[in-house]
Amino acid sequence: MKQSVLIGLIRPNSFLKTNQGYVRLLDSREPNKLVEIDDKQIGRFAVVKGFIEENNFYLTDKLEVLSPVASNLIENFLKKEILSWDEIQNEIENIYSDQIVYNKLCALVIGHKKHSPGAVNKRKNLSEFDFNEDLAIRIERRVKKVKVQRIYRRTFESLPHDINLLDPDFIISLHCNAFNGKASGTEVLYYHRSEKGKKMAEILLRHLVEYLKLPNRGIKPKTAEDRGGYLLRYTKAPCVIAEPFFIDNDDDLARAQEDIDGLALAYARAIEEIAKVV
User: Fold this and answer.
1) Tens digit of pLDDT for each residue in 203-245?
2) For the domain that residue 35 is a member of, what is the CATH number?
3) What is the CA radius of gyration of the chain?
């Protein structure tokens, strides 16, 4: 469930009248317990934060009851049609946007492993695995609205099974491209039959291209037989493989290393956006 922020009018029996209708207020810690409402609060506006399921709203924080003056002001705005319910709700979402949390788990897979490190930049003596292990830790620190779990490969064959045991909502596998030392650019791979995977790839590609400003090589559909296709095919959750730059291209690598925290932030923003659509 996605965390939401709603504004509404407090009604008797722990109901809140919102722009979408009535919801009953329950305590997320005790799902069958109604939120206690003081009789003096009935008829005032309140802001609630939590999760909505059908007509129940489970609070994860205390009820924020607006003052009588603020409540009267909002009520007058509605009556005089100065603002609509939807406009007031949108303003509340904007104010609390940093506090909205999407209850999703992202498996962040570090491509390759220590003793099989993938592509290497010989001049920097830097491997694909070493770059992405450091990057994954930085991404974890910057994602605020989604749970992130780093995944290390035991074997190529066991990786999809290991990820499936975690039961994530979506998967991002961190890689780097390599070819002839001159090829350059950003691409994201997805399973050719996965609509969610395609949408994830589009979102991630946009964030990476906007940040790195390297040539846009697009999103690439893959079958189970293609390079990377084994992971994309046999994970239960939608999965994409990120190839943000060519590690054997010194200029590409220099751009990625110019501000690794900035690259991590681009990934973090993509992860939080993806959580809204999977």
Assistant:
1) 999 999 999 999 999 999 999 999 889 999 999 999 999 999 9
2) 2.40.50
3) 23
